[in-house]
From TrEMBL, chain B:
Its main location: endoplasmic reticulum. Keywords: Endoplasmic reticulum, Membrane, Transmembrane, Transmembrane helix. InterPro entries: DPM2. This is Dolichol phosphate-mannose biosynthesis regulatory protein. The chain crosses the membrane at residues 12-34, 49-74. Component of the dolichol-phosphate mannose (DPM) synthase complex composed of DPM1, DPM2 and DPM3; in the complex interacts directly with DPM3. Component of the glycosylphosphatidylinositol-N-acetylglucosaminyltransferase (GPI-GnT) complex composed at least by PIGA, PIGC, PIGH, PIGP, PIGQ, PIGY and DPM2. Interacts with PIGA, PIGC and PIGQ. Pfam families: DPM2. GO terms for biological process: dolichol phosphate mannose biosynthetic process; GPI anchor biosynthetic process.
Length: 92, 84
């Protein structure tokens, strides 16, 4: 089974479980506070997934190792290459 | 470690995501179990907004993505038309 099929199966199973529980189709009598938590659950999972993604991106940006020497070396190499190509006649 | 603005922006994103996550968790998960007379309910909107606001934000995001794609496509079309 492909990854897409797996994901769709998982979503379908979780979605139908949630729908069955919120519409009361299973005939369970959940306490009112549990029902109150249950019905926004898909929105909650989406928002927490978004927050996790945002936080991970921010954390990786903050802890990315800069290489000052390599950056300077690269910039000087770029200047060198531009001068060389301009001398050979390439117009930027 | 990253330096300067990178660190500030990165940690800012982490802080924003944590704030949103804790507020939203308290709103959706914790509030139904707290007695409705408690003063903390004053700090949260009615529960219907817990789904309406992320939904509206998601639609806005889709709108901006669509507008950006349209803009880029129109610009590239104009560039190819100019070089023809």
């Amino acid at each position: 089974m492909t990854k897409l099929a797996q994901w769709l199966w998982g979503l379908a199973i979780l979605g139908s479980t949630w729908a069955a529980l919120t519409t009361g189709a299973l005939g369970l009598e959940l306490p009112l506070s549990c029902q109150e938590v249950l019905w926004p659950l898909p929105a909650y999972l989406l928002v927490s997934a978004g927050c996790y993604a945002l936080g991970t991106v921010g954390y990786r940006v903050a802890t990315f190792h800069d290489c000052e020497d390599a950056a300077r070396e690269l910039q000087s190499q770029i200047q060198e290459a531009r001068a060389d190509l301009a001398r050979r006649g390439l117009r930027f | 470690m990253a330096t300067g603005t990178d660190q500030v922006v990165g940690l800012g994103l982490v802080a924003v995501s944590l704030i949103i996550f804790t507020y939203y968790t308290a709103w959706v998960i914790l509030l139904p179990f707290i007695d409705s007379q408690h003063v903390i309910h004053k700090y949260f909107l009615p529960r219907a907004y817990a789904v309406a606001i992320p939904l509206a934000a998601g639609l806005l995001l889709l709108l901006f993505v669509g507008l950006f794609i349209t803009y880029v496509m129109l610009k590239s079309e104009r560039v190819t038309k100019k070089t023809q």
